[in-house]
Automatic annotation (TrEMBL):
Xref: PROSITE patterns: KARI_C, KARI_N
NCBIfam families documented for this protein: ilvC (TIGR00465), PRK05479.1 (NF004017), PRK13403.1 (NF009940)
InterPro entries associated with the record: 6-PGluconate_DH-like_C_sf, KARI, KARI_C, KARI_N, KARI_prok, NAD(P)-bd_dom_sf
BP-aspect Gene Ontology terms: isoleucine biosynthetic process; L-valine biosynthetic process
Major enzyme class: oxidoreductase
Name of protein: Ketol-acid reductoisomerase (NADP(+))
Record note on cofactor: Binds 2 magnesium ions per subunit.
Binding residue positions for Mg(2+) 2: D190, E226, E230
GO MF annotations in UniProt: isomerase activity; ketol-acid reductoisomerase activity; magnesium ion binding; NADP binding
Lineage: Bacteria, Bacillati, Bacillota, Bacilli, Bacillales
Domain KARI N-terminal Rossmann stretches: 2-181
Gene expressing this chain: ilvC
Active site positions: H107
Summary of the function given for this chain in its UniProt record: Involved in the biosynthesis of branched-chain amino acids (BCAA). Catalyzes an alkyl-migration followed by a ketol-acid reduction of (S)-2-acetolactate (S2AL) to yield (R)-2,3-dihydroxy-isovalerate. In the isomerase reaction, S2AL is rearranged via a Mg-dependent methyl migration to produce 3-hydroxy-3-methyl-2-ketobutyrate (HMKB). In the reductase reaction, this 2-ketoacid undergoes a metal-dependent reduction by NADPH to yield (R)-2,3-dihydroxy-isovalerate.
GO cellular component annotations of the record: cytosol
Length: 340
């Protein structure tokens, strides 16, 4: 089995007294900055003026520009949206990187697809939490963590691995387990996973199930509970004990249905499509399309996003979640505050 590292395997002092600059204060940024600070490290946050900067100041960080934060930093962690990284890197990060310092990422996309080309005199590593930023923060506060992958792209100091691991410790990832990877493996598996399974696969499966039931005349409320709401309960069982725990907990009827009907829905044909998705990730076609879409101002992204928002599952879901006070709907709260 691959070696999984935990807190005791890590030299935490490697980053003691060093300056860590967190660039960006969004989903990942706020979690890394706050967790690292609470782990005893010195953290500055680099941002442009705006909502994120206000939030960082509220959380007790100084308002610094990207250039100011990077200057003199021993580790610069880039937590900007992937599509904004190349421009901010060229303008404000690269000119201020200290020789012998480390440039770090939470996803390998820009290094792997050559959108950011680092200078030869810095270490380059990634620490990629395998979970959303808000859970990186919440689990840390609960005394736990989100597992992470680390990888080294460039090691000029001979110390890149120790620094990456201390960083992983600082965000709480080494409480849950840290695994070694490469920029290529992290980038390709992350893109494939989110497209075919976690985000794309699951949302298409949920919608198709909801549509099949409502088109057959069943109530949308029932279809929503069956195909979306209950998914969390099933996934929690998988998270705790794998497919076998989920199957242990469900009825034998459900388990028989799982065996005979699951492979009718997700079959060899589906797997052939997954292989095509993986090929487009590996050969750079997906990356190229996404880079061009951003350069064009995201016409397709915005059109599809608006279309998806009009799906009947959105309306019924909003109504049902409003009646379940224990379900804290962040989107609905943001809408109330006029933020989306
Ligand atoms: P978000 O979109 O949540 O946050 C982006 C942050 O960058 C915001 O604080 C934003 O501030 C700031 N920003 C954007 N453009 C600029 C700019 N031109 N100059 C200065 N600041 C800017 O990003 P994520 O946290 O989702 O993603 C960060 C990285 O983490 C990515 O590489 C992503 O792939 C990776 N990652 C993300 C995960 C997730 O859970 N979301 C999971 C694992 C990895 P402002 O308010 O000013 O716009
Ligand atoms: Mg991703
Ligand atoms: Mg059932």
């Amino acid at each position: 089995m691959t070696k999984v590292l935990y807190n005791n395997d890590i030299q935490k002092e490697v980053l003691q007294g060093k300056k860590i600059a967190i660039i960006g204060y969004g989903s990942q940024g706020h979690a890394h900055a706050r967790n690292l600070r609470e782990s005893g490290y010195e953290v500055t946050v680099g941002l442009r003026p705006g909502k994120s900067q206000e939030k960082a100041v509220e959380d007790g960080f100084e308002a610094q520009s990207v250039a100011e934060a990077v200057s003199g930093a021993d580790v610069t962690m880039v937590l900007l949206p992937d599509e904004n990284q190349p421009k901010v890197y060229e303008e404000s990060i690269k000119p201020n990187l200290k020789p012998g310092s480390a440039l770090a990422f939470a996803h390998g996309f820009n290094i792997h697809f050559n959108q950011v080309v680092p200078p030869e005199n810095v270490d380059v590593f990634l620490v990629a939490p395998k979970g959303p930023g808000h859970l990186v923060r919440r689990t840390y506060e609960e005394g736990a963590g989100v597992p992470a992958l680390y990888g080294i792209y460039q090691d000029v100091t001979g110390n890149a691995k120790e620094v990456a691991l201390a960083y992983a410790y600082g965000i709480g990832a080494a409480r849950a387990g840290v695994l070694e990877t490469t920029f290529q493996e992290e980038t390709e598996t992350d893109l494939f996973g989110e497209q075919a399974v976690l985000c794309g696969g699951v949302s298409s499966l949920v919608k198709a199930g909801f549509e099949t039931l409502t088109e057959a005349g069943y109530q949308p409320e029932v279809a929503y509970f069956e195909c979306l709401h209950e998914l969390k309960l099933i996934v929690d069982l998988m998270y705790e004990g794998g497919l076998e725990n989920m199957r242990y907990s469900i009825s034998d009827t459900a388990q028989w249905g799982d065996f005979v009907s699951g492979p009718r829905v997700v079959n060899e044909e589906t797997k052939a499509r997954m292989k095509e998705v993986l090929e487009d990730v590996q050969n750079g076609k997906f990356a190229k399309g996404w880079i061009l879409e951003n350069q064009a101002g995201r016409p397709q992204f915005n059109a599809i996003n608006n279309q998806e928002y009009k799906h009947p599952i959105t309306k019924v879901g909003k109504e049902l979640r409003a009646l379940m006070p224990f379900v804290k709907d962040p989107i609905q709260n943001k809408e109330k505050e006029g933020k989306v």
